[in-house]
Amino acid sequence: MSTAIPKTMKAIQVEKIGGPEVNVMRQVPVPQPKDDELLIKVEWTGANYIDNYRRSGLYKLDLPFMQGQDVVGTVVQLPKTTNPSTVLGELKIGQRVWSPVGSSFAEYAVAPWWKAAPLPDGVDPRDGVSMCTVALTAMALVRYSYAVKKGDYILVRAAAGGVGLVLCQLGKYLGAHVIATTSTEAKAKLAKENGAEAVLLTSASSEDNVEEILRLSEGRGVHAVFDGVGADTWEENFKVMRTNGTIVTFGNASGPVPPFSPLKLSPKCLKVTRPTLFPFIATPEDFAKLAKDMTDIVAQGAIKFAVHKEYPFTEEGVQQTQIDITGRGTTGKLLIHVS
Ligand code: NDP
After folding, report:
1. Peptide bond into 29 cis (omega under 30)
2. By alpha-carbon position, which residue is closest to atom 4 of ligand 1?
3. Where is the Enoyl reductase (ER) domain positioned along the sequence (predicted)?
């Protein structure tokens, strides 16, 4: 069975480095899947902070490039050379799938056959968008970057954001004491509702927050900090770690962390890791393992996804996601409704 696939499609492209306005809608060829790839008709995609790093030039890509890395949609073409079946399920034409693949601000997207999975029964397609980057990233951080254990004290920065809210829930699910930081009372309330035991406001003085984090963590500091804020929270992290703790720095919302000497780690024998999601899901086995881990936890109801807002799939809609997420006014996931 085949579905009529057009020759061209609408897609958001970045043709020069700059502000949100450099995201422009173009009519481009529908991508041609390789023999081992699927073609997906995109229904929903979502904004991620990384969209801003790419179009502002912090992360360097060859121009022009297409934006986006979350896909929820329907399989319209199967791979020619493979039977697309993994522990996550079998893929068929017409099947609704979720997939963390790039160039997703478009009407069609291609994915390696093994990097797409059937949307589990009972999961809203809009929640499938959060599973792609946000939840897989949080899952990788608490399993591989620092393996969170029962009784650990962990600190989650930007706790009401897309990744932050899932980290709070995963921390609680794993039995850790979750301490969080965020910028407003409303965000603090949300972080608490999602598993944080204590939430501190970044408007308080750093000295006060350090003192409170140490008090909350047996006077010894946290076992790990999960920090997507970057520059602004970097120095404070060193003051709230316990001996042999792990600083997981996974983003640059306030700017990248500065270069530093390993000697900076020695007073507390600290570890620093700077993970990104994609190496953790670079093979069929690795993707299937992490995705199954995450979807099993979702199926238990231990992770719920928050949506900030649904945006239209227009030039203005996509630009607005980037204005909003960098403006610090968002919580949870920013969705883009493609079709
Ligand atoms: P968020 O929804 O968390 O939005 C970013 C948040 O960062 C803001 O809401 C704000 O929270 C906080 N923030 C602190 N300082 C600033 C600032 N100067 N400007 C803007 N925001 C600031 O985004 P995502 O969930 O998409 O991503 C969170 C972080 O995780 C990002 O740094 C992102 O790059 C990173 N990430 C990394 C991945 C990886 O593979 N390494 C994958 C996915 C995300 P508050 O107001 O509470 O301070």
Report:
1. no
2. 161
3. 18-336
Structure confidence at residue 74 (pLDDT): 97
Residue 181 CA to ligand 1 center (angstroms) comes to 12
The CATH number linked to 52 is 3.90.180.10
CB burial class (10 A; 0-12, 13-18, 19+) of residue 184? middle
Domain count, the chain: 2
- Contact yes or no for 12/68 (Cβ under 8 A): yes
Interface predicted TM-score of the whole assembly (ipTM), two decimals: 0.99
* Alpha-carbon Rg for the chain in angstroms: 20
- Average pLDDT for 309-325: 98
> Is 213 a domain residue?
yes
Q: Which amino acid is at 177?
A: H
The two most distant CA atoms of the chain are separated, in Å, by 64
Is residue 84 lining ligand 1, measured as CB closer than 6 Å? no
Q: Measured from the CB, is residue 54 less than 6 Å from ligand 1?
A: no
Helices (H) and strands (E) in the chain, counts: 10, 18
Q: In this structure, are 38 and 62 located in the same domain? A: yes
The residue whose CA has the least distance to atom 8 of ligand 1 is 328
Q: Ligand 1 pocket, 194 CB below 6 A? A: no
